[in-house]
Amino acid sequence: MASAAAAGAPPGPAAPKSRRSVTGTRKVVAALFLLPALVLLGALVLYPIGYSLVRSLYDSSGDQFAGFDNYKALFTDDGIRTALKNNVIWVVFAPTVSTALGLVFAVLTERVRWGTAFKLVVFMPMAISMLAAGIIFRLVYDQDPDKGVANAVWVGVHDSFAQASAFPKAHPGRQSPLVGQGGAFVTKDPVRAGTPVALPMVGVAPDQFPDDAKRAVAARPEPGKVTGTVWQDFTRGKGVGKLGAPDPTERGYAGMRIEAVKDGKVVASAKAAGDGTFTLPASAEGAQLRLPAANFKEAYNGVDWLGPALVTPAIIGSYVWMWAGFAMVLIAAGLAGVPRELLEQARVDGASEWQVFRKVTVPLLAPVLAVVTVTLMINVLKVFDLVYIIAPGSSQDDANVLALELYRKGFSEGRPGVASAIAVFLLLLVIPVMLFNIRRLRREGRR
User: Fold this and answer.
1) DSSP 3-state assignment of 86?
2) Of the residues 57, 225, 256, 436, which has the maximum number of CB atoms within 10 A of its CB?
């Protein structure tokens, strides 16, 4: 009976089940494993953000509450306004150019056999730190063409079309019949046919003479013509040589242009031979000889890449050099997932390669391009190293960005309140871009 009663009795309460997470792990265990990461997150991220927010409301000493005065400085301080303007330039151009180059590299290298090697070379700058890249490009942009690669190339191209003068420092020596006239040199008196003219000059270094320069010789008189010599009237050694006459060790100004001028008009011209001699026709009789200013034009020294006008574009160029490879790799990964049948169908329908690229490839890659662009936008908002290293002190104010201004305000000028306000402002600029990127990634994940 007891067993029957027991059999008919209602079952007792079930034993409580352990609370588990979706993955089957106890939530307490999961929390314990996450605790070190949460502590680090709070210590390295949340606490600095909170401290910066609070510190931005106090004055430089940190003792007196300043309210929003530090935030007002963001829009009234000239240095911060310049930094904000440059940050806008960075955000607009640096991610756009990097993404565009990455797209071009990814598409063009897809069909070539050595595409992998090319991608490796383009991606290699990513292995270099910002500090090292800044030092490299500080040398690349050096004003001296003998040091800076950019100016060496630029000067080489320029001199291919406009050869620099070989005599930029030349000027009349003692007992010279020449006088200065607006960058040119003119004889004091008119010249006569049959009477050689001596035009001594000084100021050219021995290693700067043209290769075709020869030992200077005195010009011989020619009936009905004006002859003369233009040469370097300088001999090394005290008391050696004779002024106003070519000596055996002196060389002629090969290629020097000489003009005969009457009443302000050029009636004849000639170029000096290797030994410095020249000959003018009879029309030069009674004219004054002029050595045009073009003979003494300073050598072209290239572009001032790190000057106030070009320093920001130059630094953006160094950033693109580093990050175009990053964009290329991500876009190439997206390109590998593009259905090939769509591209082939477009070609079968008669589309050109440009049309396939513009109307098929780019729209299909739009999500990848957006992610790359937004990621680079977040990155450039915090750019600091390149600007600090590449921009010289004379133009650092012109290249200033918010991250650099934060450093300067906090450490150089002793205004930590304003520096904290800049940090909070940068955070506010980054958050919308970051949220946009997260929402896009979630949308892509749901597809």
Assistant:
1) helix
2) 256
Let me know whether 369 and 435 are in one domain.
yes
- pTM for this structure? 0.74
* Residue 277: φ, ψ to 5°: -80, 155
- Eight-state DSSP code of residue 298: P
Q: Which amino acid is at 267?
A: V
Contact assessment for residue 295 and residue 201, using Cβ atoms and an 8 Å cutoff: no
Q: Max Cα separation, the chain?
A: 157
Burial label, 220 (beta-carbon count in 10 A; 0-12, 13-18, 19+): exposed
Q: Specify the 3-state DSSP secondary structure of 185.
A: strand
Contact 319, 309 (CB under 8 A): no
Domain that holds residue 181: 171-296
Closest by Cα among 435, 444, 421 to 378: 435
Q: What's the structural domain count of the chain?
A: 2
Is residue 428 situated within a structural domain? yes
Q: Per-residue confidence of the chain (447 residues) as pLDDT tens digits?
A: 444 444 555 555 555 555 555 555 678 888 888 899 999 999 998 999 899 899 989 888 888 888 888 888 888 888 899 999 999 999 999 999 999 999 999 988 887 888 888 888 999 998 889 899 999 999 999 988 888 999 999 888 877 777 667 788 888 877 788 988 888 999 999 999 989 999 998 888 877 787 778 899 999 999 889 999 999 888 765 555 677 788 888 889 988 999 999 988 999 999 999 999 999 999 999 999 999 988 888 777 888 999 999 999 999 999 999 999 999 999 999 888 888 888 888 888 888 888 988 888 899 998 899 889 988 998 998 899 999 999 998 899 999 999 999 999 988 888 899 999 999 998 888 888 888 878 877 777 776
CA atoms of 363 and 360, how far apart (whole Å): 6
